[in-house]
Amino acid sequence: MIRDIDEQITAIENEIDKIAENGDELKKLKELKNNRKELLSQCENLTAHDKVYLARHRKRPKVDDYIDALFDDLFIQKGDYLGKEDKSIYGGIALFHGTPVTVFGHRKGRNLNENMEFNFGMPEPEGYRKALRMMKQAEKFGRPIITFIDTPGAYPGIEAEEHGQASAIAKNLAEMSALKVPVIAIVTGEGSSGGALAIGVANKVYMLENAVYSVLSPEGFASILWKDSKRSAEACDLMKLTAQDLKKFNVIDGIIKEPLGGAHHDPEFVYKEIDNMLVEELYKYKKMTGNELAKERYEKFRFIDAQIIADAESRG
Amino acid sequence: MLKNLFGKHKKDALYFNMTKDETYEADVEMNPDDVLEKEDSIDKSATKKKEDKTDSETPEMMTCSKCNKEVSVSDMKKNLYVCPECGYHHPISAQRRIRGLVDQGTFRKLKCNIPFVNPLDYPDYEDKITKLKNKTNLDEGVLSGIGEIEGRKAVIAVMGSEFLMGSMGIAVGEKITNAFEMADRFKLPLIIFTASGGARMQEGILSLMQMAKTSAAAERFNEHGGLYIACLTNPTTGGVSASFATLGDITLAEPGALIGFAGPRVIEQTIGQKLPEGFQRAEYLETHGYVDRIVSRNDMRTVLGQILRLHDKRRK
């Protein structure tokens, strides 16, 4: 459903652009704008499958868009200092309202060439080690850490395995849990599997309204459980992977609003929402000591399922 | 030479009794009886009777699925399900593994019973789990307790591949975390035998969160100076390999065990070519620097005994 609507909207936008060049078909322009509005209003109640489509949308803002919009004076950091630069993790040191922070995330491309370059946002161990290097450094200099999660998962390849994909992810999870600076993670697109979580052990985890976060991609889920990756639409509903589901599970702390039809229809709106959230959260964390921050984060994940266990216990 | 230098009466000079967190003390208020089941539940378990019964019913000879040779059943059992002909390590139940590992009569199960949870309301899940509990005589995918190996006490947790492929959901994550916490509380070394296909799909995002929970517990235990020995058995993949399994101070692996993040099939599909011989096997991991030593199941007790001995603290 969302796919059809989205394609129609794109067609309208293209026509609007064309008319704007001519400048003399105002009536037609008005009509098209109305049609667009009408279509967007149909995007109120999206299914989980719709959200997966939007979360992966080619035009959805990417990590570099967020960093450009929300931070100043970016110094990009590269490499794990152990032998490789992994371009699927992008970021560095920047200013957030004048305060130095470490900010990075999974990097997806806007077209095939970019995606090939950034490996579709699928890090190899070197990417996770680069992320850990940046985070340990942030801790050293007392900088808050902000991460943007948007990945189909850690890259499954021969070299990735040889270079220790499993232990690189595990090390990030362990070390992140004990960091003595505030960490805020935002799932902006798709957050799939350990490859997403490896930069997601944060004091606060937020999700965009149409982002998804899951143990595995719906295709992988369907393939493992039913040996049929084509049943992914069915998997989407079952998996409870939307921001609204995860908020109910207490896995995330808050949902960031998106404009109707998805973030790509009005990125500025989303930037503003994230900016407000970050200001509020970071201001709060300013008052906490390093040990308090680490303890809060530890307990968040230690007891992330405590309510679910307690509910099951009370049911007997 | 070194021995002579220090001499018998100066033996103490060779000992260093350092932990990272000197202020940390064992919880003396806690009585082990509060967290342990009453009796040695492994030697006297109902399974033993059941297994003994099947002994008389099964034919004397069986065929090794690896070398296809005829092997007597009792030889196979005596050899802890390692084929006496070809050395292939067949799957072994969690109970049998512990029985073959600890000093007889020393093992007591940790009290850690998690109620059945079904966060995704996954169809027929409860039925499946109930059947598995009856079939395997396990509470869930982990059997954990305190036992002695060559006279040295340790917390021991064994994952059972017979329980839904050792997959990690809330119960498995909680039991592993509990094992870290109990080892921490009683200042005991921790030994975990991993066997898992990864995160449990049926519990969705909450299975993914177990990676963060267990890794955080491992990190806390590490910070407190605890010794954690990871023994990787066939298979150790996905979310378990990318969390606590690869965070050991010492990492051992059983011969031929499949160990890796992504499954071989997923990698083959992604890269579109066949994987090299022996890829992701224990021996391959040893060559690539992720495993201290490959230990045959029959030698495991001796090797673990040695490692525990090497970590003895000075006795006052």
Give structural notes:
The complex is a heterodimer of chains A (316) and B (316). Chain A is built from 15 helices and eight strands. Chain A has helices at 2-22, 26-41, 48-55, 63-70, 112-117, 125-140, 158-162, 165-177, 193-197, 218-226, 232-239, 243-248, 267-285, 290-302, 306-315; strands at 72-76, 89-96, 99-106, 145-151, 183-192, 204-208, 212-214, 254-256. Chain A has two domains: 2-42; 49-314, 2-enoyl-CoA Hydratase, Chain A, domain 1 (Alpha-Beta Complex). Chain A starts with a helix and ends with a helix. With 316 residues, chain B is α/β, with parallel strands linked by helices. Chain B has one domain (32-45, 91-310): 2-enoyl-CoA Hydratase, Chain A, domain 1 (Alpha-Beta Complex), CATH 3.90.226. In chain B, 35% of the residues lie in helices and 16% in strands. In chain B, strands 3, 4, 5, 6, 7, 8, 9 and 10 form an eight-stranded mixed beta sheet that branches. In chain B, strands 1-2 form a two-stranded antiparallel ribbon. In chain B, α7 links the parallel β5 and β6 (190-196). Chain B starts with a helix and ends in a 6-residue tail after the last helix. The interface between A and B is large, with 54 and 57 residues.
Largest beta sheet of chain B, briefly?
A: 8 strands, mixed
Which chain pair has the greatest contact?
A: A-B, 54 and 57 residues
Structurally, the number of domains of chain A stands at 2
CATH class of the largest domain in chain A: Alpha Beta
Oligomer: heterodimer
Q: What is the correct CATH architecture of chain B?
A: Alpha-Beta Complex
Name given to the CATH architecture of the largest domain in chain A: Alpha-Beta Complex
CATH superfamily of chain B: 2-enoyl-CoA Hydratase, Chain A, domain 1
Radius of gyration of chain A: 20 Å
Net shape of chain A: globular
Helix content of chain A: 40-55%
Kindly estimate the percentage of residues of chain A that lie in beta strands according to DSSP.
Answer: 15-25%
Average of the residue pLDDT scores of chain A: 95
Count of helical segments of chain A? 15
CATH topology of the largest domain in chain A: 2-enoyl-CoA Hydratase, Chain A, domain 1
